[in-house]
Amino acid sequence: MSAAGRRLPALLGGARAFVRDIPVGQMYFPTWERYEAAMRGIFEREWYTNHGPLAREAEERVADVLGVRHALCVTNGTIGLMMAAKALELRGRVITSAFTFVATAQALTWAGLTPVFCDVSPVTHHMTVETAAAVLDESVCAVHPTNIWGGTCRPAEFEAFGAENGLAVYFDSAQAFGCRVGGRAVGSFGALEVFSFHATKILGTAEGGCVTTNDDELAERLRNIRSGYGTRAKVAVPVTSNGRFSEAQAALCLLALDDLEERTAHNRAIRSSYVSGMAGIPGIRVVDPPDADPSNEQYAVVQVDEESFGLNRDALVRALKAEGINARRYFFPGAHRTPPYDESAPPPGELPNVEHICRTVLQLPVGALVDYEDARVIADLVSDFHADAERLREAAGG
Ligand SMILES: *Cc1c(COP(=O)(O)O)cnc(C)c1O
Hints:
Blueprint: H1 32-45, H2 53-66, E1 70-74, H3 77-87, E2 93-97, H4 103-110, E3 114-118, H5 129-133, E4 140-144, H6 155-165, E5 168-172, E6 180-181, E7 184-185, E8 192-196, E9 209-213, H7 216-226, H8 247-278, E10 284-287, E11 300-304, H9 306-309, H10 313-322, E12 328-329, H11 352-360, E13 361-364, H12 372-387, H13 389-396
Parallel strand pairs: 2-3, 2-4, 4-5, 5-8
Antiparallel strand pairs: 1-9, 6-7, 8-9, 10-11, 11-13, 12-13
The structure holds pyridoxal-5'-phosphate.
Pyridoxal-5'-phosphate (PLP) binds next to helix 3 and helix 4.
C-alpha cells in the first residue's frame, strides 16, 4: 500500500477503522422470519424437548451429511465429549493435544480420566502419530486427537496407530463439521467423533453438538447416557446424564444445515481476502487449513513472526482491538497451562511447538458479521501496523 494511503493506527490516536466491535466468531443465524416460522411449529405441536420431531429430523440429516450411521444430537459439545468418554468405558490415561480448547481435557477429567498432553506439528498445529508416540506408555488406554482450524489431524493415521497399540481412538471434531479428508467426511473416523454447534462454530445452534459413530452398540450406550428417560435402550451404562437437544436447538440446526454451503463459501471468500491482502506483509503467515479437502473454512488463522513483522502477536492483537477488531489468541496459554493442569504441566521446553504456537497465533474475524471488503480493510491495517511497527511497539508494549 502506498504511503499516501496509510492511516494512523487507532492505538496511536487515529480514528477506529470499525465503529462497532467485530466479533471473531461466526454468529451465523437465520433471519427472524425463518426462525419464527420454525418456532411456531414447535408451539403448535406443544412438543419442546424429549427427542421431538425436529430433533429426530436433525439427527437424520446430520448423519446423512456426514455419511455416518448414527448422529446423536446433544446439548453442547462439552457434554458430548463427557458422554463419549463414559460410553467408551475408558480407564486410565488418554493422550490428547496440548494445543486444543480446554474442554477437550476437562471432559476427560469429568469422566475420571487423566489427560496426557502431547506436542503438535509446527506446520499444521495438530498432534501427529509421532508426537502421540512420544508420550505413549503402558498406562495409556486411548488417543483423543482434536481437529482444529477447519483442518484435520489425518484421522486415518490415528486409526492405524490405535489398532497397532491396542488403544481406543476417538476425536474432538468440534471445529470440523463439514470437513472432508481422503474423500471421507469427518464424523466416521475412530470409535466416535464429537462436534460442537456453539454460536462460534460454522453450524451454530447457539448451544449444541453431536456425537457420531458407525458402531450400533456404542450408539445405544450413548443414547442411554444422554438421557435415561424414554430411550427404550436396554443396554447397560455406568451412568446417565441429561444431554438432550431441545426442539428450539433442532430448529436452528435444520436451518443451519440449509445454509451450511453458503456460510462456508462466505468464509472461504473472507479467508481468500486475508490471504491476498496479507501476501506481501513480512512475518505474517495465513495458515492453510491442513489435511482437509474441502475445509469447512471455520477459521482464518494467522501466525506472526515477530522479528520480520516488527510486532509480536500480543501487540498485534492490541492494535487490532483498538480498531474495533476482536482478533483472538487461540488457545492461549495452552490446555496444559490452564487450571487444574498447570500444576502438573511439563516443564517449558517439553512441548516446544505448542509453546511457540500459543505465543504466535491469532484468529481473525470470519462469519456473518464480516465480509470480503472488511477482510481487505483488516489486511491493509495489518500492513500499516508493520510500517508503523516501531511507534506501535512503544504504544502496545510489545
Ligand atoms: C468449541 C469446542 C469445544 C466445546 O464445545 P461446546 O459446544 O462449546 O461445549 C470442544 N473442543 C473444541 C476443540 C472446541 O473448539
